[in-house]
Write a structure and sequence with these properties.
About 0% of the residues lie in helices and about 50% in strands. It has no helices and ten strands. The relative contact order is 0.28.
Length: about 110
């Protein structure tokens, strides 16, 4: 039995432009998607996909199934634009926990 994040926890909205690759002119992104989430605007040290320690300025939590690979562009409610460091699936494996994704931002 899968348990989702309850709707009352999804009081913020961010816009995600999924990273699709790079070109001679820079990164390429898919169409923007509005995502309901819980935004934690907090600075902390995290590791990127290469294992290097970097500083994260915010994290948001959303329902499973979000397409938001590292290097995707995210616009926060404040209007600030940032880049995804990591997307982590938080699936409880059938335990009664709210399954979700954690998206760590630069």
């Amino acid at each position: 039995m899968r348990t989702e994040l309850p709707s009352y926890m999804l009081g913020h909205q961010v816009t995600v432009e999924p990273y699709t690759g790079s070109s001679a002119y820079g990164p390429l992104y898919g169409p923007p998607v509005a995502v309901s989430c819980f935004l934690d605007d907090q600075t902390k040290n995290v590791r990127d996909k290469t294992g290097r320690e970097v500083v994260s300025s915010a994290t948001f939590y959303a329902r499973l199934g979000l397409v938001c690979p590292p290097e995707s562009r995210v616009t926060l409610p404040s209007g600030r634009t940032t880049i995804v460091i990591a997307l982590l699936d938080r699936d409880g494996g059938g335990m009664p926990t709210p399954d979700h994704v954690e998206v760590v931002l630069q």
